[in-house]
Each structure stands twice: as structure tokens, then as C-alpha cells.
Design goal:
The protein has helices at 85-98, 114-127, 138-141, 148-162; strands at residues 2-7, 16-18, 38-40, 45-50, 64-72, 103-107, 133-135, 164-165, 185-186, 191-198, 202-209. The strands form 4 sheets. Strands 5-11-10-6-7 form a 5-stranded mixed beta sheet. Strands 1-4 form a two-stranded antiparallel ribbon. A two-stranded antiparallel sheet has the order 2-3. It is 22% helix and 25% strand. It is globular. α1 (85-98) packs across α2. β6, α2 and β7 (133-135) form a beta-alpha-beta unit. By secondary structure, it is of the alpha+beta class. It has a single domain (2-209), classed as Peroxisomal Thiolase, Chain A, domain 1.
Length: 218
């Protein structure tokens, strides 16, 4: 469904980013952790690509885009709105667009910053449910900036197809019992929602399924 490649990171882009108020730069991304202190950029530029095709009888379906949602809150340049209203709106629009009965797991934006992860976990519990399992890939890849969303949709599609949710790397003391840590977990039946929340209050969500029979498969 997609590929990941690694190339040399240009020196103009800083390697580390940490939130104001933290005393030390993090040496690991501890997304969705009670011990998180900030995000690390990918040490090299990350790249990811998806090929989207119409359904065909002879096509090997790796995953399906069931629905999408977007919202903007534009409260701060980088940090999200304290209420999470943009996140919640994007998720609800994506779910309505997808037309599915259940979400098996959530691939979170999960940047390891104090504000994002706290708010995102609360919004997931409110919109999807408090027991729906969650993971973040940034402990494995670092923040791939513009490529993060695509890479995470690839992982979400794999989860939708196999039912396995990868653990949140480097995270031990999770902020919720729903966060997958240590070893992969089994996703509940249903589609997977992937969250991407960017600078300037951009909030985008994609609901991914395993085949053309689910929801509003496109």
C-alpha cells in the first residue's frame, strides 16, 4: 500500500523540538506517556507514499479509505486548542463520512508533547470511547513532519487488515490503560481512524478499512 524511505536530513532543520516549560530536551519520544517531555524530529527526512486506485476485480486490496474529516481551530501556531474542539470535529466528520458502526483502534497523532497527547487522549475517549486501544508511531519514526500522516495511514491500514495494533515505542507509563505498550495488541473488530494534527490548528482524520465491503469504501 505504500513505501517508506530514508534520506539524509538537511542541517537547516533542527533535530529536536520540545515544549516550552520543560527543563530538558527529550532523548526519546514517549508518546501518550505520563513521562513525555516533547517531540523529536526524524533524524533524517522521512518519506511515505500511498497509491490510491479504484476498486477492480483483479486488484490486491491493501486497505480502503472509508472516510475523511478536517477542521481548523487556529488558536496557536503549534499547540492545539485547550478544548480539543478542532480534533473532536475532525474525528466526528471522518466517522460520519465513513459510515462505519465501530472503530477498532486509533492511530494517534501522539507527538509526546504535554498538551497534544493529553488533549488527544481525552478527545479519543470522548468521541470513540475510553476503552478503544490507541497507539502512536512517532516513538519509532520520530516526527516525520509532512510525511507523518501518510506513514501513519499505512500503519493504520495494516492494523485494519491484520487486527494487530503496534505498541507505542519507548512508552512505559502510559496516560491511559487504552494505550498499547510493550507488545502488539489485538484490535477490536472495525475500522481504524488515523489522526493528524498539524501546525496552525490543522486537524485531519482518515478512517481506514480492510476491504471494499466496509462502510462507505471509496
Amino acid at each position: 500500500m505504500g513505501t517508506l524511505t530514508r534520506v539524509q536530513h538537511p542541517p537547516i532543520y533542527g533535530r529536536r523540538h520540545y515544549s516550552p516549560g520543560t527543563k530538558h530536551q527529550p532523548n526519546k519520544v514517549k508518546a501518550l506517556s505520563g513521562m513525555r517531555s516533547g517531540c523529536l524530529a526524524c533524524t533524517v527526512i522521512g518519506a511515505a507514499a500511498l497509491i490510491l486506485e479504484r476498486f477492480a476485480d483483479d486488484a490486491a486490496v491493501r486497505g480502503t479509505i472509508l472516510g475523511t474529516g478536517a477542521a481548523w481551530d487556529a488558536v496557536r501556531i503549534a499547540a492545539p486548542d485547550d478544548t480539543g474542539r478542532g480534533m473532536a470535529t475532525a474525528m466526528r466528520v471522518a466517522l460520519a463520512s465513513a459510515g462505519v458502526d465501530a472503530i477498532g483502534s486509533v492511530n494517534c497523532h501522539g507527538t509526546s508533547t504535554p498538551l497534544n497527547d493529553k488533549i488527544e487522549a481525552q478527545i479519543v475517549a470522548s468521541v470513540i470511547g475510553p476503552t478503544t486501544v490507541m497507539t502512536s508511531n512517532k516513538g519509532t519514526t520520530g516526527h516525520m513532519v509532512g510525511a507523518s500522516g501518510v506513514a501513519e495511514v499505512i500503519v493504520a491500514a495494516h492494523t485494519a487488515r491484520t487486527g494487530l495494533v503496534p505498541p507505542t515505542a519507548s512508552t512505559t507509563a502510559a496516560i491511559s490503560g487504552a494505550v498499547v505498550i510493550g507488545t502488539p495488541a489485538q484490535s477490536e473488530p472495525g475500522a481504524v481512524i488515523s489522526n493528524s494534527f498539524g501546525f496552525g490548528g490543522q486537524n485531519a482524520c482518515i478512517v481506514v478499512g480492510s476491504d471494499s465491503t466496509q462502510g462507505n469504501a471509496k
